[in-house]
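Predict structure. Chain length: 197.
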Amino acid sequence: MKKYLILFVFVLSSAIVFGQFTIGPKVGYNASKLSTNLDTVSSTFKSGFQIGVFVRIGKKFYVQPELYYTTQGGVFESNTNNWQQKVSIGSLDIPLLVGFKLINAKVVNLRILAGPLASFVVNKSVKDAGGILGPIETADLNSINWAIQAGAGLDVLFMTLDVRYQIGLNNLIKDINNVTINSKNSVWVVSLGFKIL
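Prediction complete.
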């Protein structure tokens, strides 16, 4: 473990010395929707937010790890039994993105980026609406989820704007009474970051 920490510090120091290192805070808005494979259940979008930090290492080609807290979820509604459930998830997300600068100027950069994301759920809830109990319970929501992000970004001076699409790789909801809901998370994200180094 110690040798990995020393290697990380060495790479980080080299990136700073050669001007290939950027770090800063970021905030964002997201619209998420939980898919469903059941014809009798529909799903709608839910608004959320994210706040955290990003690190960018590299020039034309770069690696961008991030850490942020995000709120996501969706609303399930039965087309036959009149129940409605609002699913809310708060998680610590860690994407590891690889990018390429299509335009690499001093004042303006236009980028593309993609990579995997690990999501660790820190709070979750399922709320019933209309007084009718639905089939999903809070305990049915997974605590660790995986996704892929892809998108584009624009840097102007010290500001960085990203637009991304995120698609879940695993089911967020466990099987309920031997019924697979097959629910994955689809998310549109718009975020604004500020380079402080």
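Summary: The mean pLDDT is 86.
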